[in-house]
Amino acid sequence: MDIGLNFSIHLSFTVAAMAVIMLVRDITNVRTVTLIALLMMFVLEVIPAVLGLQEVVGLSPTRLRSFIILGNLLACFYTPAFMSSRLTFSLILLMNGLTLGMLEIGDIRLLCLVVPVFFVILIAATGTKNGMHRILMVFGALCTALISMSVLYPADAGLDTGMLELVGLVFFIGLFPVSPWFSKLYENLPSGLLASAFIVQAMFIISLQQQQSLDRNAVLAVLPLLSIISVLMALAQHNTRRALSGLAASQLGFLVYADSGQHFSDLAGSLLAQAQMVAIPGLILTLGILETRIGKLNLSRPTGQYDSYPKLASAMLLFGLMSAGFPLSLVYVAEDLILEAGLYEAPLQGFAWLGVTALTAIAVMKLYLYLCHGGKGFEPGIDILPSKLFAAVFVTGFLIVSSFTLTA
Amino acid sequence: MPSLLLFEILAALIFVPIACVFIWLATSMLLSKKPREATVVLFCRIAIGSAFLAALAMAVLLPIESGNEIVLGSWFSTDHYSYEIVMQTDVIAVVYALFTTALLYVICSFSKRYLHKESGFHRFYLVMLLFALGLLLVSFSGTVELLLVGWEVVGLSSVLLIAFFTQREQPPRNGLWVFSVYRLTDIGLYAAVLFLHLSQTGTKFEALSTAPWAGIPAHDGAEITALLLILAVMGKSALFPFSNWLPRAMEGPTPSSAIFYGALSVNLGPLLLLRMGDVIAGSPLISGLLIAIGLFTVLVGNLAGRVQSDIKSRLAYGSITQLGFIVIEIAFGWVELALVHVVTHAVIRTLQLLRAPSLLHERHHLEQMLGHHIRVFHPSVETVTNFQRFMFRLRLERCFLDNLLVDWLVNKILLLIRQLDKLEREVAGLITGHKSEAVALPTAAESSVTLIRN
User: Fold this and answer.
1) In whole angstroms, how far apart are CA A33 and each of A4, A15, A19, A89?
2) To probe the interface with B, which of A122, A343, A365 has the most B CB atoms within 10 Å?
3) pLDDT value at position A139?
4) Cβ separation of B176 and A179 shorter than 8 Å?
5) What is the ipTM of this complex?
6) Of A62, A343, B347, B438, which one is least surrounded by beta carbons within 10 A?
C-alpha cells in the first residue's frame, strides 16, 4: 500500500483549505502554521520510507514528494516573517499543492492546466506592480497556447508537436530569448515564492515529458546554446536577481535536456529535478534573506561584509555548491549520468553542457564571493539565526546522503 | 598480519584523524563555540602528525608489499558501470602523502603565530584541513573519479583561502579568477571521467591506456582521454597558457600561499601526469605536446619572473618555471627524477615563502647596521636597444597572456552578452510600460576580469 500517497493527498487538501482560511481570516502567526503543515507532510513522507514501508529508489513517488515538500519547507522557513504578507505564505502553500498535484495527474490535458494556473498565481503575487501583470499575461498566454497545442493536436495532423512543446517549454522556463518575463519576475517576486515557483517549473518539466516526448533533434540543436547564453547572462549581470533568473533558467534547460533523452537512464532527469528542487531554492532564499538585511544586492564589485553575517555566507556557499554539482552531491550524480549518455549521443552538445555546468559553478562562486566578501563595514545583529544554518547543513547532508542510496 | 589489512589501517590513520578534527572544528564553529587557538593548533598537529607517521610506515612497508589497492565499496551504480571507491598505495601516493603531511605540519605550526588573534583564525584551520583531505584523497585515489573529488575539494579550499581576507576587494576578485581557470580547465577532467565510463573498462588509472571510446580504437581513445586530462593539469598547475593565475593567488595569507601555490596545490598536475605514465610513454603526440607546454611554461615563468617587484610574485613565477621543467621530465619518462624534483622544489619553495614576510624587516635591519641604503644597480635607459625594450615590455605584460585572454575573448563575450541583456530589458520595458534600469556595459574599472591587470 502506498501509505505516503494517501497521506499526501489528504494533506494536500488540508493545506489547500488552510490556505483559503488564511486568506479570509486574520491568523496572527501564519508562518508557523504553514511550517507545521509542511513539516508534518515531510515527516509523513519520510517516516514510512525510513521504516521500510516505502521504496525510496530514484524514481519512487515518495522520494520525489519528499524533495518537493522539503523545497517548499525551506521556502517557508527562510522567508522572513517580518517582511512577508499572509498572501506570500498562502501562495507558497498553493504552489506546494500544485506541485504535489502534478504527481497525481495522469491525464496530459489536465496537466496543461497547470500552466495558466501557475501564471495566475504569479499575477496574484506580483499584482500590477511595475506592469508585471501585463508581461505575465502575454507570456503566460503564449506559453499556454503553445503547450496546449502540442498536446491537443493529433500526432498525424502534420504539425510538429514535439517542436511546439519545446518552444512552449522554452517560454515556460524563461530561457533566452523569451526570458523578459522571467527576469522581471525575479526582480519583483519575494524570494519564498520564487523558490516555490522554481519547484513547480521543475516538476512540470518532468511530468510533461513522462507523458509526451520532445523533438530530440531540436533539443540538441537549440537548448545547449540557449542555456549557455542564459548562464553567461547570469555571469555578466550586476543585478543579483537577474543573475539568479539566468542561473535558474539554464538549470531548467538542463532538466529539459535530461528528460528528453532516450539514451538516458530514467533515473537521471528525476534525480536532477529532485536535487535542484532543494538546492536552487536554497540559493534563492539565502540571497533573499541577504537582500532583506542589506538592501539591493549589486554584483558590479565585491561589497559583502562577511564578518557581519558569517552564518548566512556559509549557508549561501553550501546551497551554491550543491546547486553547482559539487562532487558527492546528488546534483553531481545526476549530471554524471546525464552527461555520460549525452556525450555518447552527441559529443559536441555534451561538451556544451559540460560548459554550462562549469559556468554555473563560476556564477555561483561569484555570488558568494561578491556578496559576502570585499566590504569594509561591520553591522551587528544582521546574521541569520543558528537554526537556519542548521537547516542548510541538514539539507546539504540530505543531498549527500541521498546520493548514496541510489540504485538504477 | 596480512599486508593489505596493515595498509588499510595505515590509510585509515592518514584520513580519519584529519576528518575527525575537521568535523569537530566545523561543529564548534556551527554552534558558535569556537575553541581556543592553542587547542585548535594542537589537534591539527596531532591529526597531521599521525597522518605523516602513517605515511612513513607505509613507505617502510612498500619494499615488502608494493601497489596495494584498497576497495572501500561503491558510491552508486548503473546498468553498465559502478562508481567504485578505490585507493591506491603505491610509491607515488606515499611520496606525495609524506611531503604533503610534513609541509602541512610545518605550516600548521607557523600559522599559530602568524594568524594569532586574526578574526579568521579558525576559518583558516578549517579550510586547511579540508585542503589536506582533498590533497591526500588525490594522492591515494585509485580511480580518476575519486581523484576528481579530491581535485575539486582542493580547488574549492584554495579559492576560499585566496579570498581569506574578507574586507578587501581584491582577494574575492582574484579568487573568482582562479576559480574560473580551475573550473573551466576541469571540464577536461570531467569529460575524461565520462569517456572512461563509456569505455566500460573502468576508471582505474591502468584503464587510461586501454580505453576504447565509442568505437574509437584503444590507442586513439587513450590519446583523447589523455588530452582532456592534460587540459585539467594545465589549469591546476599554472602551465602555459594559464600561468598567470598563480601570482594572483598570493592574495591569501602567507601560510596559504606557501601551502597552496608554492608547494602543494600546483604539484597535483605532475601527480596526475605521473599516473598517466603509460599513455605518455606510448604516444609521441602526448609526450611532444607536454614538452612544448613545459618549454613555453619555463619561458613565461622565466621572462615574467625577472621583472616582478615583490618577493611573493617572483617566487610564484619561480614555481611556474620549475613546474615547466617537471612536466618536461615526465614527458621524457624520467619519473624518479620528476618525483625528486617535485619534493625538493616543494620543500625549498615552502621555506622561501614562509621566510618572505620577514625579508623586508631583515633588509631594514641590515640597512640600519650598515648605516646606509643598499644600492641597487639600475641600467642606463640610453643603452637599451629596441629588442631589449620589446623584451622588457613582454616581461612586464606577462607575455601578453592576460591581454589575449581578457581583451580578445572574455570582454568580447561579455560585451555581446550585455547587449543581449539590454535588448531583453527593452522588450520587457515595451510590454510592461515600465522602464528598466540602464544596463551597465563592461568598463575597465568594473569588469571583474579586467581587474586582473591590477
Assistant:
1) 21, 10, 10, 10
2) A365
3) 94
4) no
5) 0.91
6) B438
